[in-house]
């Protein structure tokens, strides 16, 4: 069960991203200002008590959370998941489960392998919920934190099964919040555009996808989903750049799937169109042509129609389907935005009340 890492494109366009799934274990060889006091004089560096306390904190969090992390084996991939509730629901990435309906699941702490079945997948947010047929002994539901309290500089741990190494833990900080990231959709990717992601320096390797990004309060603050690679280096990894779906979105999607069997309220803004990227005379993308505007949808109600080519949403230029999705990710359903488009040879602008995906 081999699977190549999938490539994705970040908003800034400087790096690509790869989902953290793997087809199996592939081991790799380990390859001041004068005004600032010397490190040795720092109380933090000098005190073994501080170092020991931090180590104790790490070990406490691992003991608390690792029993909530599982390894998920699908037909074409190997990834991770987080136990969501006592009924045995497990949340993971949609790209981890692919098109499968049944899975083999084992606890990160070891023990028996059990069968799990798909409840529902929501590729638009790269999330899915499966349910364990039986809950293995020692496995327990995770505690999800408050995404609004996640901030830069917080210490975090990433837990999962990188390269099939079940129960692995890496450490880092929250590097940024509010990132909008678009998946490329190649190599099994979902092609989703995901807003408000947590950027972390904790290593996110193939197999970490669907696992847990955890704070020192033993709370899951995100689901590790993407790791950056540098196209300029032939797709080599860009160390210290990973992304996780925030806990608030995980709860929103998983809660609806468990209650209704599907996502009924995405909370994501949409123009309610089917579109395609348009290439200019220089073969460069220069807009999104409306193939169909859903009757009663946001674009149709604003007077837009098939054949119109969208070039801007608000102040954000639109050149491709991906850039359109990224522009919309910054808004909420019901927001009023100005959409610029061309109709034939004419430049048009119209105010649109955004609908919901």
From TrEMBL:
GO terms for biological process: proteolysis. It comes from the Bacteria. Keywords: Hydrolase, Protease. The keyword Calcium does not apply. GO terms for molecular function: serine-type endopeptidase activity. Pfam families: PDZ_2 (PF13180), Trypsin_2 (PF13365). InterPro entries: Chloro_Bact_Ser_Proteases (IPR051201), PDZ (IPR001478), PDZ_sf (IPR036034), Peptidase_S1_PA (IPR009003), Peptidase_S1C (IPR001940). Residues 257-345 form the PDZ domain. The keyword Hydrolase applies. SMART domains: PDZ. This is PDZ domain-containing protein.
């Amino acid at each position: 069960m081999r699977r190549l890492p999938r490539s994705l494109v970040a908003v800034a366009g400087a790096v690509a991203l790869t989902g953290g799934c793997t087809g199996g274990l592939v081991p790799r060889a380990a390859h001041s200002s004068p005004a600032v006091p010397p490190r040795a004089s720092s109380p933090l560096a000098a005190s073994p008590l501080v170092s020991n306390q931090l180590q104790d904190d790490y070990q406490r969090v691992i003991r608390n959370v690792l029993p909530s992390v599982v390894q998920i084996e699908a037909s074409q991939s190997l990834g991770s998941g987080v136990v969501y509730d006592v009924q045995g629901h497990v949340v993971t990435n949609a790209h981890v489960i692919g098109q499968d309906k049944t899975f083999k699941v084992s606890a990160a702490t070891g023990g028996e392998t059990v069968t799990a079945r798909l409840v529902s997948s929501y590729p638009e947010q790269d999330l899915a919920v499966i349910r364990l047929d039986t809950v293995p002994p020692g496995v327990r539901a995770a505690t999800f934190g408050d995404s609004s309290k996640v901030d830069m500089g917080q210490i975090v741990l990433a837990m999962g099964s990188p390269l099939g190494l079940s129960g692995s833990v890496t450490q880092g900080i929250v590097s940024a919040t509010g990132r909008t990231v678009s998946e490329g959709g190649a190599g099994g990717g979902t092609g989703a555009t995901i807003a408000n992601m947590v950027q972390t320096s904790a290593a996110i390797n193939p197999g970490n996808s669907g696992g847990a990004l955890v704070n020192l309060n033993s709370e899951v603050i995100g689901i590790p989903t993407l790791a950056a690679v540098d196209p300029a280096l032939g797709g080599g990894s860009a160390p210290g750049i990973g992304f996780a779906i925030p806990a608030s979105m995980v709860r929103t999607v998983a809660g609806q799937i468990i209650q209704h069997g599907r996502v009924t309220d995405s909370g994501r803004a949409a123009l309610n169109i089917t579109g395609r990227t348009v290439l200019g005379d220089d073969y460069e993308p220069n807009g999104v042509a409306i193939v169909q505007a859903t009757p009663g949808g946001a674009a149709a109600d604003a007077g837009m129609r098939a054949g119109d080519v969208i070039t801007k949403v608000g102040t954000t230029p639109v050149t491709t389907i991906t850039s359109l999705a990224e522009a919309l990710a910054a808004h909420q359903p019901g927001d009023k935005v100005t959409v610029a488009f061309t109709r034939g040879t004419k430049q048009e602008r119209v105010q649109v009340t955004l609908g919901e995906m």
